[in-house]
Amino acid sequence: MNKFLFGLVFLASNSYASSSLSFNTELLMGSSSNKLHASQDFDLEDERSSSNNSTSYGIRFGLPISEYFSVELSKHFYGEADHSYTRKIPSGLINNNNFESIPVKLPIETDALKFGIKGHVNINAKLNVNLRVGLANWRYKQHSPAMLVVNDIQEQNHSGRDTYFSVGSEYELSDTIYIGIEYSQFSIKETEQGTYSADVTYSHKINDLSLVLGWAF
Asked: What's the pTM?
């Protein structure tokens, strides 16, 4: 994926014939859908899924490298989604079939630093449609989806890198200001190893719908 992105940048920059460059800054505000699943195959055979929404926002910078392509760097905050649930654990004597319900609060907060390529096609003088693809360096602030199941994984340094894509449309309000709408998606798939417990495999699919306000300088 890295070689693919750098190849696009190289080809597009070599073909750029415009005499002027513009620098774009964008603010994004929207809503994210978070779908989680975690499982571990130890004696407990624990498995759980959860889904919830969160408010998202971000800032993005773009630099055109051809008439139809730009390189972009963005920081996106996908907000805190509450994935609380109730866990039943044995109570009293062993094998007495009595269980106690314990509430577990699991707020999962995710952000990502993204680098990618944007391509666009003009529908008319003011309206375009666009496609983005790149790498998302994601990070969990504290809890990761691994905590949906019983484990002894440490709650820190949960981060990684996955590909993202988005589709959208933009409309020019003036020579320097435009508005837009964008749908983006990326999926996290990880396996984490506990100190004593079995490995935990989890997935986290983030679908985001955002409004965009941009300035061209």
From this structure: 0.82
